[in-house]
Write a structure and sequence with these properties.
2 copies of one chain form a homodimer. Chain A is 39% helix and 18% strand. Chain A is of the alpha/beta class. Chain A has 2 domains: 201 residues, NAD(P)-binding Rossmann-like Domain (Rossmann fold); 90 residues, UDP-galactose 4-epimerase, domain 1 (Alpha-Beta Complex). The first copy, chain A, is globular, with a radius of gyration of 19 Å.
Chain lengths: 328, 328
């Protein structure tokens, strides 16, 4: 079992690499090699199998990034939402031309006689638009309100077609907003969904730009990794032409997130200040806050637990490291 | 009013050019110039305004193809379904990179201070899949079963995003199968839908590869041109983020098409031989045979008349020229 992670230095890529290193096996088979690819050389975890870390541009994807014999490719390389909105060229280049490069790499493997590799692609809730009141069914049409979402939705179509043609065997997972992200607050419109939990747990203040009853579709980094690993190992026979799915995240409100935090650390939410920001509210207000996610459940994607588990997972997995990184 | 037609030498591009030349005005304004662009220099109609015919590659779109001051761009340049299926590289290049080139040309105009030009894009019923029994609503998701349809659906997303960003003001029209096409039978899976009318009206035999009760979503070339001209002149204010629509074609059956032909030319259908072709039936059987098309009606797209009008339009517009071309 040979595995490649494109975007292997990113937030989720590193977690998948660590999980594989801990497991030593994947999909019931021993891992024979792991290749990590990113714009800067990704950190290689200690693993009971060879790990290759490569740096480069996904658009000019080197053959070594998806070497001969690769069984599974996690394609996480992307320019994220705020950046794709700020820099149209960059978003289009990485999110679309990068995806074409992955298609071509897989085509080369198949042309050389290999079995079509499984490709796991991270799409996003941001590829949809909806009101706060909607619960989107699995066949909801993607009408994105941002370039990132448009590029992700277009990439899903291109990958599904490549899959139909036998160049690969793709599963596109439309991730919810992933919270709690470690690190620092940033300029992303969605940054506050993590900040309102992470900062108080670090003893710091955070700003909440939307009302407490604002609804959002979220998942933990831990569950996102579970889903992506499931997508890489599952039977795709029942998927037909439609290679995309919305996994069963949590539909919650900001107020309920804060109450869950208080359940774990009493009084933490006192550090959250309400500072209404209509610009941010307008952006995140177009993202759907709930999906039925029936198809993903039927395909074995594990539903999310309650939000209090997300808070606990952040404390267990990331709080100490975040404190260290930020010198707190 | 300056207008460009990319794909101006094609079946529909030439008809739009001829219509504009006859009218002399468009959207209530005199036409000041028409630019026709295609892989070979398109024929320029006699017109009461300057017509420029240019040849080139849409991916390396010359600035002169969408010159300064252009108000409306008809983007019809495409690799069609059978060709895009046979040659993946070519389809991706023209249907996706070509669309990026149109985005970039419009961005340049807007960056130079111009109003975002209206872009009319021809998408296709082939970007959907459905059974013969389905009537697709306007919010049906595109799950294409062919590379052409996947590329068209992805291009719709890219153009809608470019429109949201203010680079253009796009309307994507998902055309039904256009019949009756002039010319000769070709290798396209959908070729027979035209052949079964055109060939008997020329006094020639045609083969029908599907059963008489096979349902199909069609429109005439004449109505397709009406719709594209409407898309170039309509008010897009009510469209919101969703810049695509399915115009009100005709849902008919092959048997009803033949009966309509007999109504116009008694006995013509005797020249149609039933020769079942499961391969062709499998391809065309994944295309939806009906749409509600409510949104397009509300936006002023004229519904189609009965199929007998399509037969009459072919006789009036194309029969004599087709006879001449084919030496009959």
């Amino acid at each position: 079992m040979k595995i490649s992670i494109l975007g292997g230095g990113g937030f989720l890529g590193r977690r998948i690499a660590n999980r594989l290193a801990q497991q030593g096996t994947y999909a019931g088979r021993p891992i024979a090699g792991l290749t990590l690819f990113d714009v800067a050389p990704p950190p290689a975890p200690d693993a009971p199998f060879p790990v290759t870390a490569l740096a480069g541009d996904v658009v000019d994807l080197p053959e070594a990034a998806i070497p001969e014999g690769t069984d599974v490719v996690f394609h996480l390389a992307a320019v994220v939402s705020a950046q794709a909105e700020a820099d149209y060229e960059l978003g289009r280049r990485v999110n679309l031309r990068g995806t074409d490069a992955v298609v071509d790499a897989c085509r080369r493997l198949v042309a050389g006689g290999a079995k079509a590799p499984r490709v796991v692609f991270t799409s996003s809730v941001a590829s949809f638009s909806a009101t706060q009141a909607d619960t989107l069914p699995d066949d909801a049409r993607q009408v994105p309100g941002n370039s990132y979402g448009a590029q992700k939705a277009a990439a899903e179509l291109i990958l599904a077609d490549a899959s139909r043609r036998g160049f690969m065997d793709v599963v596109s997972v439309r991730l919810p907003t992933v919270v709690v992200r470690p690190g620092r607050p940033n300029k992303a419109a969605s940054s506050f969904f993590s900040s309102i939990i992470r900062e108080p747990l670090l003893g710091l203040e955070a700003e909440l730009p939307v009302p407490d009853d604002f609804a959002v579709w979220v998942c933990s980094p831990r569950r996102a990794v579970d889903w992506l690993l499931h997508a890489g190992a599952m039977d795709t026979g029942a998927m037909g032409l439609d290679r995309s799915l919305s996994p069963p995240g949590i539909s919650t409100t900001v107020g309920d997130m804060l109450r869950a935090m208080d359940e774990v650390r009493f009084g933490s939410s006192a550090l959250v200040r309400r500072v209404a920001d209509p610009a941010i509210a307008a952006i995140v207000g177009t993202w759907p806050s709930a999906f039925t996610a029936e198809r993903a459940r039927a395909l074995g994607f594990v539903p999310h637990g309650p939000f209090v588990d997300v808070v606990r997972a952040f404390i267990e997995d990331d709080l100490a490291a975040t404190k260290r990184e930020r010198g707190l």
